[in-house]
Amino acid sequence: MSLLHRHFERHATHRVGWLRAVVLGANDGAISVASLVVGIAASGATRPAVLLSGLAATVAGAASMAAGEFVSVQSQADVEQADLARERQELVANPSGELEELTGIYEERGLSPELARQVAEQLSLHDALGAHARDELGITEALRARPIQAALASAGSFCLGALCPVLMILLSPAGQIAQVTAAMALLVLTGLGALAAYAGGAPVGRGAGRMLLWGALALGLTALVGKVFGAVV
What we know:
7 helices; mainly alpha
């Protein structure tokens, strides 16, 4: 039996970019649209009015999520590109100084001066810019900013999250739109929390409970607003 073997481990860091956008979008879609539906339904509005409000909130929310996510992640991507361009110029203008800088980084991480120098030289020969991006700037392929991917993931997941409250408007018995929508929204949010925790390698119960708590709070507040102002108006 060979003493050398490859060791495989499952990690979740490669999912961070899209997972964050998908979970945020679906969560926001479910909470915001369901809260709006519950609030308007609690005010005594008719089913067509509630449906129109839910659809409008879905379209506006998806567009807002996509635009906000794109601008935010694009800003991060711009910073990364600027840092990489600066590092590329420094590697051309002062390769020896950059080698010393990389050596110093490895020494700070615990390598002996001789080994740190050897590692820096080997990595620089293979991919100097990649070594500096990873070990000096903290930029890796798994965590790099991807604006378009993030925007599409946010908009699509928002629509998926909003699908539940919109369907509940159509399927709920007359006079029970608020109650049925709230119950289904909490169920969906609990599932989203559990799924996100599972995909990220975190405790499933904690993720589900956290999402359930904040969802219940949001729905309760909007239902209260709908009741109070619906009675006044």
